[in-house]
Amino acid sequence: MIWNPNKECMSRDEMSALQGKRLHKIVEYVYHNVPFYRNKLQAMDIRPDDIQTIEDIKKLPFTTKQDLRDNYPFGLQAAPQSEIIRIHASSGTTGKPTIVGYTRKDIGIWSETMARCLTAFGVSRDDIFSVAYGYGLFTGGLGAHYGVEHLGASVIPAGTGNTEKHLKLIRDLGITGIACTPSYALYLAETMEKIGISKDDIRLRIGAFGAEPWTEQMRKEIENKLGLKGYNIYGLSEIMGPSVSYECQMQNGSHINEDHFYPEIINPTTLEPLPLGQTGELVFTTLTKEGMPLLRYRTRDLCSLIPGTCDCGRTNVRMGRIQGRSDDMLIIRGINVFPSQVESVILSLPEFAPRYMLIVDREKNLDTLLVQAELRQEVFTSTFDTPAAVDALEKKLASKLKSVLSIAAKVQLKAPGTIERSQGKSAHVIDNRKL
Ligand code: ADP
Ligand code: K
Ligand code: ZN
């Protein structure tokens, strides 16, 4: 089943023509409504009329996460506040989140692209579908929720947490579909064993898994333990949220909703576009967004685009699995975490030296984060033989970390000079998870 064959099965010529037309319109729109883009385009001597076909996209400037930070909170918003009906935020570094506003039209398109994904996974109006992404500022929960409603299946707004209660609902209501992070799916399976629900007691048949990287091995494990078929769904808040791309029944790459989100692959160092099939940094231009349209947004996700038509009948280009990131962002329980966020917390507390280590692991299928931080000499001298003082300092750091990272971290205080100082990008991270 295909939700919108008119848009998912266009010929390449039709698609390119539509993308070119939309690109021209969006460039004109940001030129008139976003001073940031107008200034950039003027500095490059580009007028909206210079952009007529989709190939002209190569003339346009890139947009980075840093641009979003520099223009925090609403600097890149194109629509007037009266037109914005929802605001999400994704984690940023240095405590500044990325704010994304959506107009009514944006929310409608998001529901449509979500419905396309769900239909490709095999979800229909007869399904009872549980959304177990986090509800709140994170785009996963509400994004998937509106898509399920738009499709017409019955949505269960389960959210995360309350896992045992959720599992009982899955059993008692005969819930047939679920959207969550792959690691939460494994955690569900684990908890099922613990409370004595077997996969024969439940009717789950479809899983929509995304928001973090996962492997074929994880897919097999989840499928075996929950008795369902798992599909990949990809997205990011800056562009929309989940539903930027989705697997079909062929499970050979994820189809991009390219009538709304135009993909390019570039060399992250030279910024040159790469030929189809090569691995590089994924870049998206939003072709229809009103709230916060972005030109050539650098996702930092590394992957390749897969040429050729797909046996499912869809012609939309596919992307391969995310193979890594060109920055040092970690995804822990689906939440984006930058080592620099931890650094900013540590620097803000006078008791700590600027030496720290993040140790990421997976225990019982759930990601864990341990932050080790060195105490300053004078603080160490005055506290190390007073357990209560050490305890208080640990609590102080843990609570500050929680509020900045939005996830709980274990904290371990270290004596001065005991954390190894090394050079390089991931000098502050040990990631023991096997992906
Ligand atoms: P979301 O709300 O979609 O998780 P965020 O902006 O919080 O959006 O995080 C987006 C990032 O999460 C992506 O840039 C990518 O690194 C990662 N991500 C999302 N979906 C997937 C997926 N299916 N596979 C691998 N990584 C993913
Ligand atoms: K994420
Ligand atoms: Zn397909």
TrEMBL record:
GO biological process: phenylacetate catabolic process
Chain ranges of the AMP-dependent ligase C-terminal domain: 334-433
Domain AMP-dependent synthetase/ligase: 77-284
Molecular-function GO terms, alphabetical: nucleotide binding; phenylacetate-CoA ligase activity
Gene3D superfamilies in the cross-refs: 3.30.300.30, N-terminal domain of ligase-like
The keyword Nucleotide-binding belongs to this UniProt entry's keyword annotation: yes
Catalytic activity entry: 2-phenylacetate + ATP + CoA = phenylacetyl-CoA + AMP + diphosphate
Biochemical pathway: Aromatic compound metabolism; phenylacetate degradation
InterPro entries: Adenylate-forming_Reductase (IPR051414), AMP-bd_C_sf (IPR045851), AMP-dep_Lig_C (IPR028154), AMP-dep_synth/lig_dom (IPR000873), ANL_N_sf (IPR042099), PA_CoA_ligase (IPR011880)
Listed EC numbers: 6.2.1.30
Record's keyword terms, sorted: Ligase, Nucleotide-binding
Pfam families in the record: AMP-binding, AMP-binding_C_2
Function recorded in the entry: Catalyzes the activation of phenylacetic acid (PA) to phenylacetyl-CoA (PA-CoA).
Quaternary assembly: Monomer.
Annotated family: Belongs to the phenylacetyl-CoA ligase family.
PANTHER family associated with the record: PHENYLACETATE-COENZYME A LIGASE
Protein name: Phenylacetate-coenzyme A ligase
Organism lineage: Bacteria, Pseudomonadati, Bacteroidota, Bacteroidia, Bacteroidales
